[in-house]
Design brief:
It is a single chain. The chain is built from 10 helices and 4 strands. Strands 1-2-4-3 form a 4-stranded antiparallel sheet. By secondary structure, the protein is an alpha+beta fold. The structure holds flavin mononucleotide. Flavin mononucleotide (FMN) binds near residues 24, 79, 178 and 193.
Length: about 210
């Protein structure tokens, strides 16, 4: 059984695509991205684990000129050019009403979670933080899924969250977390990758 489990290890090509050679994109080739590919990536990302399978990440794929015009005013100056160039910019948000799906996706945990949040998750600070944290994890899974299917990602924290929320989530149910440009990165403009921490800087055993 262990040998079978170990045989699941992905090959070096996969590791190159997802980690070893994958870089954050800051410029994009002039090539569109199919919506079916974006949805496939979202589907894979949703398979990554979240606490009690609560799945609070929500995504708006901005892939039209009109959508970009709505988004760009909220983007920090240093991110405008790359966001204009990218065929798609995903808005990642945490759903503050994520409990509305619990009956289907987390039936065994639903009652316990609702009780923990006084039956009113949208107005519970702990529930809102929980949604925020779990959705952040899912953005990470999305990043790796996008790379696994051949896209380059340009995650961005440089934007006005309040402005994005007012424009795209005016009912207040969702809160934007990060933006992510998606497409086929222009590798010619990449700078050398910044060094990572040494293993001894961030790992230990106990
Ligand atoms: C959450 C997050 C926010 C980021 N915000 C920005 C940003 O606003 N603008 C930008 O140009 N790059 C941004 N980056 C890109 C990072 O600088 C980049 O991922 C990091 O330096 C690693 O680069 P590498 O993937 O090429 O090794 C962001 C990355 C993440 C994960």
């Amino acid at each position: 059984v262990i040998a079978e489990k170990l045989a699941r290890t992905v090959n070096d090509d996969a590791l190159r695509s997802i980690f070893l050679e994958a870089r954050s994109a800051h410029a994009f080739l002039d090539h569109s991205v199919d919506r079916t590919l974006l949805l496939r990536i979202a589907e894979l990302a949703a398979l990554g684990p979240t606490s009690s399978n609560t799945l609070p990440m929500r995504i708006v794929f901005v892939d039209t000129k009109e959508g970009k015009q709505r988004l760009l005013p909220a983007v920090s100056p240093g991110n405008v050019e790359q966001t204009t160039q990218a065929p798609v910019t995903a808005i990642f948000a945490a759903d503050m009403h994520f409990h509305e799906h619990f009956a289907r996706i987390a039936p065994e945990n639903s009652a316990r979670l609702l009780q923990r949040w006084d039956g009113d998750p949208p107005n519970s600070e702990a529930a809102r933080q929980f949604s925020w944290d779990q959705a952040l994890l899912q953005i990470g899974y999305f990043t790796l899924a996008a790379r696994a299917l051949g896209l380059d990602c340009g995650p961005m924290g440089g934007f006005q969250r309040g402005a994005v929320d007012a424009e795209f989530f005016p009912d207040g149910r969702r809160r934007s977390q990060f933006l992510m440009n998606l497409g086929f990165g222009d590798d010619r403009v990449l700078k050398p990758r910044a060094p990572r921490l040494e293993l001894t800087d961030f790992t230990s055993f106990a």
